[in-house]
Target: Metal-dependent hydrolase
Amino acid sequence: MNAPAQIDAAAPKSKTMRPAPTPEGLEIIIRDERFNRDAKPRRWWAGDAFGTAWHNALSATFPRGEAFFIEAVKAHRAGADPKLEAEIRAFVRQEINHTREHVAFNRLAEDAGYDIAKIDKRVEQLLALTKGRPPIANLLVTMALEHYTAMMAHEFLANPSHFEDSDPEVRAMWRWHAVEEIEHKGVAYDTFEHATRDWTPFRRWMRRSVVMLIVTRRFLFNRWIDAMDLLAQDGITGWKARWGLFKYLTVTPGVLRRIFPAWLSYFRPGFHPWDHDDRALIGKYEGEFEAALMPAE
Model:
């Protein structure tokens, strides 16, 4: 069941923070979809080990990671205006559904013979380090990682080459996830602005910039290690694994190369995720999705 969250776009923002450029009339829709409940081939990307390894590595982090995002945002909802409060509720519901579907996807990866328990354990250990940390630090990390998911979501939807040869149901799941990441891409950021409404603009900019650099190093390093481990399970090691994964990420289809300008924009003073309004990609997906559900005449 697809349910648009009730968000009052006219609700006033706090007088102590600038109005966020979240588009008027934006609907954060909870699409309660289910995917990947049946057996699939071992390599989802038309037999491509590198695309399969990268996306399996990403998916293995999502169940614990998205639970962390939910708690980080919810920790700062006190005092939020009605609009932001509604957006946080919708964000939580979308992320809960994402967790459920990536658990199912990860189970398929395991059934196909991939051992992803090591990845899950590493994520668990990293999240354990956040215990006792100031809640705002967790929100800063969440905000940076939400920017990563939004950048990749845009790229996946804007450039069909990323998924054109993948298993159809796997492709549908990733596109569904991408649409919802775009829809709620401003929620963690707006929550941060609410939580730091008494900070100076310079302090906000400095903190989020430093955290993005730290998150980027850890994100790329850990996902590289995870993907290399999965490639080794496919019998691909050494220079062949390193070059193949590097080529996949930076040349063709080159998701990391292509998102670099959007990553760089995060460091601009006054940045907001909705500075780039890419809702057209959501409309394109919805049109294709509805057409796919139409009965044959």
Observations:
- The beta strands are 2-4, 29-31.
- The CA atoms of residues 37 and 107 lie 9 Å apart.
